[in-house]
Amino acid sequence: MSEKVTQALAVFGQGYNCAQAVIAAFADSLGMDREAALRFAGGFGGGLRSGEVCGAVSGAVMAIGLKYGQTDAADKASKEQCNRMTIAFMDQFRQEQDTVLCRDLLGYDVRDEKAGQAMAPERKRAICNQAIERAVVILETMGF
Question: Is 53 helix (H, G, I), strand (E, B) or coil?
């Protein structure tokens, strides 16, 4: 297991969400303050709290933006590079996990409290740990 995976899983284990876990593992190496990264990603867990795009995926896309994102409106090459990297990441994650949606990964609508309570916490943690690990590993294979 890589150091970044270990870092991300440790952050998640401390009670942060999946997006926070992924971006925190890369923040320092991408020039972002860890505390700012944790704050920034705070609302992205649980698929934006609505079961949409998995938080681990969101955190990875944040990392892609930090590395390749456009900062000058005239810099179309950076925009295109960021877009290519995002598409490549999304395609790879979807290929490995069959989906990028939190609700599909977990198997229930995260807005449904009863369904969430019915799922064993260990099972949910295992699913999220796997999503976090895969997001980090994919980023690493992409040169992060």
Answer: strand
Burial of 13 (0-12, 13-18, 19+ CB in 10 A): exposed
Residue burial 62-84, b: 16+ Cβ < 10 Å; e: rest: bbbebbbebeeeeeeeebebbee
Could you tell me which of 23, 19, 21, 26 has the C-alpha nearest to residue 11?
Answer: 21
pTM of the model: 0.94
* Range 129-141 burial, b when 16+ CB lie within 10 A, else e: bebbbbbbbbbee
Q: What is the pLDDT of residues 120-133, one digit of tens each?
A: 788 889 999 999 99
